[in-house]
Amino acid sequence: MEPYYVTTPIYYVNSTPHIGHAYTTVAADVFARHQRQRGRDTFLLTGVDEHASKVARVAEEQGLRPQEYADRIVEAWRSLPARLGVAPDFFIRTSDEGHKQFVQEFLTRIKENGREDIYQGVYAGLYCVGCEAFKTEDELVDGKCPEHDIEPEWIEERNWFFRLSAYQEQLRALYGERADWVLPGFRANEARSFVAGGLQDFSISREGLSWGIPIPWDTDQVAYVWADALVNYLSALTYARPGENLIARYWPGVRHLLAKDILRFHCVYWPAMLLAAGYEVPRQLFVHGYLLLDDRKISKSLGNVVDPLDLVDVYGADPVRFWCARSVSFGQDGAASVAGVRERYERELGNDLGNLLSRTTAMVARYRDGELRAVPSFGSEVEAILAPLGDDVAARLDSFDLTGALERIWEVVRGLNRHVETTAPWQLAKDDARADELDRVLYDLVDGLRAVAVALASYVPETSARILEALGQPPTIDWSEVSYGRTQPVEGLGPAEPLFPRIDEPAPAA
Ligand code: ME8
After folding, report:
1. What is the pLDDT of residues 475-501, one digit of tens each?
2. From the alpha carbon of 297, which atom of ligand 1 is closest?
3. Residue 432 belongs to what H/E stretch?
4. For residue 368, is it within any domain?
5. Is 15 touching ligand 1 by the criterion CB < 6 Å?
């Protein structure tokens, strides 16, 4: 099986981590953990983008060198994945020596590819420092960048340009040949029509800046922040494991996750740069929507931030991860609300899942003195419920259906709850003649919960481990365990502690 390499965008170090960043990070982690459960060689990359001109400005205001300032603020970004239960295989900083060196080599490869794909020209235009991109008049609203609500600056300078226009045909062909190259399909259409509309060359360097990666053949210029940042997906593989170059192992089997704001950079500019430098294009790109609060994109500059770490403090990492996957259909824009975290915590995690575990373990403790016998009843309702689960969830996660795969698991949780009601073990327990039947029902409930815990391991890893432990089962989460009849006999099972106790603290204000 081809190794699985999944990336998040590298986040601007000079902004504050908010729930939108947590969203992509959690999604990438779910995909990575899931592929690992299936025994696949997997690599997860996240990190920060440091060479934005804003970093140099703010550092100067604070009397610091840009690197010193970046070193201070990067910690907030390192703790973001950690607090969300995400352990990336590498956390990249674009100020890493290994990255800087690779970007220089990468740009030199393009320059020397024999097609003059990098040439000198003059650029004049309106530049938004928030987007780190030039803007056309049409893109402005009342003279301001609608994303950042600030007026762009007029910039005129001699820069190095990348001949994007030369890649129009190749990109058009790629979009024609690979139906699922960019997902969802409506995003592929957006990229395809951007390509069809005619591609303009773009500037890949900036003059007179000291914060950035010097252009190797013209050190008065530094690489444009995007020409530097996109390259992280490759550069990381050259130095993440000292002494090892992981490019041959993980490239081009990469899946880039990103939101729609940076579609053009990833789905058009980046593949063209790769082709120009002699690399294969990424295997797949998934473009998700924005989480919206009050119908506006969540972002620092719009003063509309939800600190994901506040939510983690109140609810824990797993409920926040669960909410990220469940609140909005992955790929679509959707309204997020902090109240929704609480609601899902109480209703779905607490009632649907937590109570099922409490009831099941309490019944084994009460009716069987904590002994669970291994009595799978092949042909049972629970066997039928579990039979398609592993394949269904895997197929959905292979196509980035983060929300659909979780809903599929939740159907099973609901099915198990119905099974408790229809079999009414409390009635069976009153009738000695039905002792075997009771044993089978208890076994089926424990087994169903065990399989659900394994299926949920990529979404809510801590919870999954706690369920297996409460059921007296080994912590094995190989995907083959998502099937009926794998529960080991247990003795001494006691009623489980509540998985999701009631929380009385108020939810943090949105
Ligand atoms: O664009 N909803 O960094 P960035 C969902 N440094 N996801 C969101 C979101 C929201 N409201 N807001 C942000 C940059 N995101 C560049 C990337 S990559 C080579 C360079 C997530 O800090 C989403 O993944 O602005 C989006 O693409 C990313 O954060 C942008 O992060």
Report:
1. 999 999 999 999 999 999 999 999 999
2. 11
3. none
4. yes
5. yes
